[in-house]
Amino acid sequence: MGILTTTLLSAAVAAAPSWSLQWSPRVDAAREVLGQPYRTRRQTTEIARLFNAEDQADFAHEFRDLDLPAVDGVQADTNSYVHRLTFAWQRRADTLRVRLGVTLAVSSNALKDPGDLRAGDLYPAVGIGWRAGPVWLDLYADDRLGRTLVYPGFELQLRPAPSHQVRLGFPETSWHWQIAPRWSSVAAIEPDGACWQVRDEQLDERRSEVCSRSWQAAWTLRWQDGPFAVSAMAGYSFASRLEYQLRDGRNVRVDIPSGGLFGLSLGARF
Question: What is d(CA 236, CA 28) in angstroms, rounded to the nearest whole number?
Fold first, then answer.
């Protein structure tokens, strides 16, 4: 819900309150992977401190149950519960937008011993963009594409009607529609990948990386009244793959069938 979060925070800045809070649970439709039932769940909590119309700091905690399937009867060398804690500062001005952040991404068993956490458990969450006429030119460093990469992006903003805005670009493309004073919607295609540094279940010295590569196309309907907002999302995930290590030391890549996803978001500003 990255585009939805940006929309909520922008609205919060315009309305003057200094803080915004959002809770977003999501569940993917059940499917079958390697003859096993497969279903992932997640929930995200985000809080932002809004300093002015351009600057904000935010913290987000995302929990996922990745449901890592066994391969040839061999289980994954970690539990399936993973966490992402992201701290970031961002500025959005007329011709410059900057996001400087870092994410601690680990399995839940790694959090049992905070003294065992290392710099290698951190991932960048960085982006910088310059506006050249109607086009934004961006440079990102993050793991949204299922690997930690530095890659370019762009965005062309079009407004075919006063209540409609289309943002054509990479890695995100979206259509925003202000349906009525309290109702709006967003249709978007964006990456939904991430990586985590995980530990084996016995918390021995063995460490490995789990990466999820996926894209999603989703439609979100949002209602807002004063400081409160409620959103419902329905979409489709595709081009999905999991990469992880098994207990016998093998690294595997497992393709995940495409399927639906459903989400809810509750937000407030104060």
Answer: 9
- The upper half-sphere exposure of residue 96, i.e. CA atoms within 13 Å in the direction of its Cβ, equals 5
Contacts of 118 (CB under 8 A, 6+ apart): none
Residue boundaries of the structural domains of the chain:
2-269
R_g (Cα) of the chain, nearest Å: 19
Q: How far is CA 14 from CA 54, 194, 221, 227, in A?
A: 10, 31, 20, 12
Specify the CATH class of 2-269 in words: mainly beta
Q: Report d(CA 48, CA 92) in Å as an integer.
A: 14
Distance CA 262, CA 269 (A): 24
* In the chain, beta strands by DSSP E: 19-28, 31-33, 36-38, 41-50, 55-65, 81-92, 96-107, 122-124, 126-132, 135-142, 149-161, 164-170, 173-180, 183-191, 194-199, 207-225, 228-245, 251-256, 259-269
pTM of the complete model beyond 0.85: yes
Residue 10: closest CA among 40, 44, 55, 45: 55
Each residue's pLDDT tens digit, 99-108: 999 999 999 9
